[in-house]
Amino acid sequence: MDSNNNKIEKVVELLRSSKHTVVFTGAGVSVESGIPPFRGAGGLWERYDPEEVASIYGFKRNPKAFWEFAKELLVKTKAEPNKAHYAIAELEKMGIVKAVITQNIDMLHQKAGSSRVLELHGSMEYVDCLDCHTAYKWEEIEKKIEKEIPRCESCGSYYLKPRVVFFGEALPSDVLSEAMDEARKCDVFMVVGSSLVVYPAAHLPFIAKENEAKLIIINYDPTDRDELFDVVIHGKAGDILLKIVEKLKHV
Fold first, then answer.
1. For residue 116, how many C-alpha atoms fall within 13 Å in the half-sphere facing its CB?
2. Nearest to residue 21, comparing CAs of 217, 209, 226, 183?
3. Segment 47-100, tens digit of pLDDT
4. How many CA atoms lie within 13 A of 56 on its CB side?
5. Are strands 97-102 and 231-234 parallel, antiparallel or unpaired?
6. Residues in Cβ contact with 106 at an 8 Å cutoff, skipping those fewer than 6 apart
7. Where are the strands (E) in 53-170, listed by range?
């Protein structure tokens, strides 16, 4: 723990002198909100076939399989922002964090108060009928899937697709371009809760490093990319980020 305390002090120093910090988050930041991880022991991919429930091809074959998966991922958990989400939002309020880039689709950063969130994989905020193009807000769909597989009220279709990026689909080019621009111009790039295995998103820290940014990673487990970073902290993101915020406030 002492070594983590020293590393937290180093992060505080980097953030205190930073003019433009960018935070990049993955599934690990939402695990502390009760949302299960996708990979690793106990991950969703142990129980679900991603080709069936999270690819565009699987969705077109059987949209009901996706909605059964979404029910467990987003409805049963009743997820709320955790200490990590709130700490990141606080760092934005303090003027340190200029943007949050996330691979998550759960909208918890916005719920915690972050105002500039670049969602690389989209989000569940809107759901579109692929047959008649009727659009729904997530709140309308959420009420339905607690009881049944949702259908379009206009045409009866089960092909209701959230505005998320499935496997087999390209990332939204405008969001990816903006995220790459943030990686180029930041002076500190902080990864929270990502194993950095999904590309092209995982390339962003490399872009930041090429442009001489300092790199920080806070993740529960070691990653294959740890050697790339200037500060590596393993542990619970919420606890670590909260300590960082508290130290920044008490100069």
1. 16
2. 183
3. 788 888 889 999 999 998 888 888 777 665 578 999 999 999 999 999 999 999
4. 10
5. unpaired
6. 30, 33, 35, 74, 79, 123, 124
7. 97-102, 117-119, 122-129, 135-137, 160-164
Catalytic residue among 20, 85, 109, 121: 121
Q: How many CB atoms lie within 10 A of CB 47?
A: 11
Residues in the chain: 251
What predicted TM-score, i.e. pTM, was given to this entire model? 0.90
pLDDT digits (tens, 9 = 90+) for 177-201: 999 999 999 999 999 999 888 788 8
Cβ–Cβ < 8 Å for 53, 60:
no
Token look-up 């500190």 returns 188
CA atoms within 13 A on the CB side of 13: 9
Note if 85 is an active site residue.
Answer: no
CA–CA gap between residue 148 and residue 158 (Å, rounded) = 11
- Contacting residues for 193 by C-beta, under 8 A, at least 6 apart: 25, 26, 27, 28, 29, 30, 31, 84, 218, 219, 220, 237
Instruction: Answer whether residue 42 shows pLDDT above 80.
Output: no
* Distance separating alpha carbons of residues 91 and 18, to the nearest angstrom: 12
List CB contacts of 203: < 8 A, sequence separation 6 or more: none
